[in-house]
Amino acid sequence: RRFTAEDLFAFANINLDHLTETYNLAFYLQYLAKWPEYFEVAETPSGRFMGYIMGKAEGENENWHGHVTALTVAPEYRRIGLAHHLMNELEEISEHKHNGYFVDLFVRVTNILAITMYKKFGYSVYRRVIGYYSGMEDAFDMRKALPRDVDKRSVVPLDHPVYPEDLECN
């Protein structure tokens, strides 16, 4: 279901995971106001949060794409396909509502489990971003082409790393 402002007070069980990037309240509210269709939550029948995804549409021309800002699933609900379901939802929105060329995301180069999962979902490493995480840890920019990118040019890997200030969309 769609995320609501009240949900910001109920997702602590998910955000406590050390691999989950957390943001300030204003950041979440900005996403919710600008890109509500990209903010989804999965919950149990009793209302307990299982996971969520938040993203946005950004870029210009052939760089117009969907971006995964955060995807996280509570540890007790992992390995049941929930992350795949949430990613599919974001990809569908990026393709059908925003007519994007690709979907991208950033992941810590040390997060092997997530990298492996994203590769299973069809993502590939497009480039390495030096010092992306607070200047301390590198990230992989991973991408998956959408049908609009017929020649799959958006996912041809760069042969050199970049720095955060070199990114087209921040």
Q: Radius of gyration in whole Å, from Cα? A: 16 Å
> For the record, what CATH class applies?
Alpha Beta
Whole-number mean pLDDT: 93
CATH homolog superfamily: Gcn5-related N-acetyltransferase (GNAT)
The number of domains is 1
- Run of helices and strands: HHEEEHEHEE
Strand content: 25-35%
How are strands sequenced across the largest beta sheet? 1-2-3-4-6-5
What's the end-to-end separation, in Å? Answer: 27 Å
Backbone structural class: alpha+beta
Helix content: 10-25%
Number of helices: 4
Shape: globular
Tell me the major beta sheet: 6 strands, mixed
At CATH level 3, the topology is: Aminopeptidase
The count of β-strands is 6
Query: In CATH terms, what is the architecture?
Result: 3-Layer(aba) Sandwich
Structure, described:
A hairpin with a 6-residue loop joins strand 2 and strand 3. This protein has helices spanning 12-15, 25-34, 82-97, 112-120, and strands at 40-43, 49-58, 65-73, 102-108, 124-133, 137-145. The two termini are 27 Å apart. It has one domain: Gcn5-related N-acetyltransferase (GNAT) (Aminopeptidase). By secondary structure, it is α+β, with helices and mostly antiparallel strands. It has a six-stranded mixed β-sheet, sandwiched between helices. It has four helices and six strands, in the order ααβββαβαββ. The relative contact order is 0.14. The longest helix has 16 residues, at 82-97. InterPro entries: Acyl_CoA_acyltransferase, GNAT_dom, NatB_acetyltransferase_subunit. Belongs to the acetyltransferase family. ARD1 subfamily.
